[in-house]
Automatic annotation (TrEMBL):
<dbReference type="GO" id="GO:0019354">
    <property type="term" value="P:siroheme biosynthetic process"/>
</dbReference>
<dbReference type="InterPro" id="IPR036291">
    <property type="entry name" value="NAD(P)-bd_dom_sf"/>
</dbReference>
<dbReference type="Pfam" id="PF13241">
    <property type="entry name" value="NAD_binding_7"/>
</dbReference>
<dbReference type="Pfam" id="PF10414">
    <property type="entry name" value="CysG_dimeriser"/>
</dbReference>
<dbReference type="GO" id="GO:0004325">
    <property type="term" value="F:ferrochelatase activity"/>
</dbReference>
<dbReference type="InterPro" id="IPR019478">
    <property type="entry name" value="Sirohaem_synthase_dimer_dom"/>
</dbReference>
<protein>
    <recommendedName>
        <fullName>precorrin-2 dehydrogenase</fullName>
        <ecNumber>1.3.1.76</ecNumber>
    </recommendedName>
</protein>
<comment type="pathway">
    <text>Porphyrin-containing compound metabolism; siroheme biosynthesis; sirohydrochlorin from precorrin-2: step 1/1.</text>
</comment>
<dbReference type="InterPro" id="IPR028281">
    <property type="entry name" value="Sirohaem_synthase_central"/>
</dbReference>
<dbReference type="InterPro" id="IPR028161">
    <property type="entry name" value="Met8-like"/>
</dbReference>
<keyword id="KW-0560">Oxidoreductase</keyword>
<dbReference type="Pfam" id="PF14824">
    <property type="entry name" value="Sirohm_synth_M"/>
</dbReference>
<dbReference type="InterPro" id="IPR006367">
    <property type="entry name" value="Sirohaem_synthase_N"/>
</dbReference>
<feature type="domain" description="Siroheme synthase central">
    <location>
        <begin position="120"/>
        <end position="146"/>
    </location>
</feature>
<keyword id="KW-0520">NAD</keyword>
<dbReference type="InterPro" id="IPR042518">
    <property type="entry name" value="SirC_C"/>
</dbReference>
<feature type="domain" description="Sirohaem synthase dimerisation">
    <location>
        <begin position="158"/>
        <end position="205"/>
    </location>
</feature>
């Protein structure tokens, strides 16, 4: 098993090929669509849930068996069929065209694997066990979901706004004092308790106290 290198990839408006239309394809397609990818499904059959996405023009469906030209412009390729020969062929074709490929069920044929992900606004945590146990990856994701709640979205967007202000108004040594104070837990806790204006007050007061 290789030591996989994790990256966060911008898939907005990027073409992605998914071969197969079963449950696994559905799971991959849903995540791809929620990250802005333009998804093309190639499969003789698709599940009703995928059919709905196609009817709503959320993704494209080529109703046929896979053939090598389907790789097309795809920047990522997923092979989610139950047929090992088809999966093997998709993997070979993608690799021939230097496209990263994920073959469900078979890490050996993958050039990348998919982590278990959780998102809270700009916080994005991806968990992988390198293929050792997808169930453990899911369990760790669930534990992290309990640890980092919905407050993270508001918390990070608030910090993002202040980052620009702090960069332009405070010298580097005061910036670190500011960030240590703002991220010591109090602001996050106030947001967790829906006390947003008090959280903003703590930040503002700290900022003003550090201005010359
Ligand atoms: C994270 C997640 C993302 C996603 O796919 O979206 C994901 N699998 C998930 C769930 C899951 N998959 C399976 C079960 C049933 C229980 C079980 O068998 O363990 C469950 C549990 C469930 O359903 O909750 C079956 C399974 N999966 C693989 C094999 C083949 C093998 O291990 O050799 C088999 C056996 C097939 C069989 O026996 O028929 C292989 C892979 N699955 C991966 C990712 C990659 C490694 C991730 C890592 O460990 O780092 C890798 C290598 C390739 C890939 O698919 O990218 C998603 C959790 C999403 C979430 O809930 O957060
Ligand atoms: N990695 C995982 O997370 C995971 C989880 C469960 C199952 N699996 C395994 O992954 C495989 C797929 O699972 P599933 O539940 O989606 O299976 P499925 O049988 O529901 O779907 C397979 C799909 O592949 C399509 N297909 C078959 N031949 C094709 C071809 N030549 N070209 C294009 N499409 C073709 C079928 O029409 C079907 O839509 C199975 O082998 C299963 O054991 C993996």
């Amino acid at each position: 098993m290789p030591q996989y290198y994790p990256i966060f990839m911008d898939l907005k408006d990027q073409s992605v090929l998914v071969v197969g239309g079963g449950n696994v394809a559905l799971r991959k397609v849903q995540t791809l669509l929620s990250h802005g990818a333009v998804v093309r499904i190639v499969s003789p059959k698709v599940l009703p849930e995928l059919r709905t996405l196609v009817d709503d023009r959320t993704c494209y469906w080529l109703e046929k068996e896979y053939s090598p030209e389907d790789i097309g412009e795809a920047c990522l390729v997923f092979s989610c069929t139950e047929n090992e020969e088809v999966n093997q062929q998709v993997s070979l074709d993608a690799k021939t065209h230097y496209r990263p490929v994920n073959v469900v069920d078979d890490p050996e044929k993958c050039s990348f694997i998919v982590p278990s992900i959780m998102e809270r606004g700009d916080l994005n945590i991806a968990v992988s066990t390198g293929g050792s146990s997808p169930i453990v990856a899911r369990q760790i994701r669930q534990e992290l979901e309990a640890l980092y709640g919905s407050e993270m979205k508001e918390y990070l967007s608030l910090l993002k706004v202040w980052r620009t202000k702090v960069k332009t108004s405070l010298p580097p040594e005061k910036r670190s004092v500011f960030w240590d104070r703002i991220t010591d837990g109090e602001v996050r806790k106030l947001i967790q308790e829906d006390r947003l204006s008090e959280a903003e007050g703590v930040i503002k007061q700290c900022f003003l106290s550090l201005l010359d």
